[in-house]
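A quick word before the example. In earlier lectures we treated sequence and structure as two separate objects. From today on, think of them as two lines of the same record. Here is LysR family transcriptional regulator written that way.
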Amino acid sequence: MKPTLNQLINFCTVAETGNIGKAASKLNISQPPLSRQIAQLETILGAKLFKRAAKGVSLTLAGEQFLVDCRAVLVMLEQACNNVRAVESGQKGVLNLGATMYASYSVVPHVAMQHRDTYSDVELHFQEMVPSDLNAALQDGRLDAAISFSETATPGIHSLVLLREPLIAALPANHPQVQSEHFRLESLCDDPFITVPRQSAPMLYDSILHQCLKAGFSPQIGLEASVQQSVMNFVAHGVGVALIPASMENAQLRGVVYRRLENPNMVENMLMWSTKNKNPALPGFVDLCRSIRDKLDAAQAGGSTN
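And the structure line, produced from the sequence above:
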């Protein structure tokens, strides 16, 4: 037989007041039932916890040790209750976030830092994936949220635009157009282009194709690479050229030179999450991302007026 929670609470109250009558009054019970509970507790433990005297009670050596341990148990129990409430309210727990490599160089650092400062007890687990894998991971529950390129509407998936950024050209450092004072995209019409496969990121692929068509040519696809880092590495080694979201310039990859485009297409970084996701930490995360979006929009608007 083990002590009950009530017995532990009652024992601590008697120990702290040093008087069974005062403890009974504090616990809002009568003295005889409290005395019986203390006696039952001593029987269960096989040890005397109190020394009785006319003016009250004092702890035995066994009682002193039991008081230390009881207080620790009650503190742990209170913490356990607080943890449950925190998890249920979204203030504590784990949130699994996936994103493309491009997003890792644009909005993801903002999100990670703000989330750490706002929800310090919610662990953010991050995975980098290609867009098609992100969608699958959202739908099967491996991810709570994902940041990727805008895609066609998917049933059961909510989305929120976080950032719009232009396409830019990525050239090998030894490319002839690097020295040109007035770079024009059509000057790359004879170059092989390195792109992501359309099945991996259809919206990005279509935006790149449309950008070239606006410049008057259809790009020669020299190589397709699902991993964005591979696209950049191939450019750095002179395999071809690429059109990429502007945030990838932050990668500062050696051997790659970046050029702005006239009338560039804009690509969108979207936050996506499943309507079936029940993670209590998700609503707060979505609200936080919405706040970050508003700040980024304001910063871009301010920059465009300068």
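Notice the following. The chain has three domains: 5-88, 98-162+273-303, 163-266. We will return to this example when we discuss secondary structure assignment.
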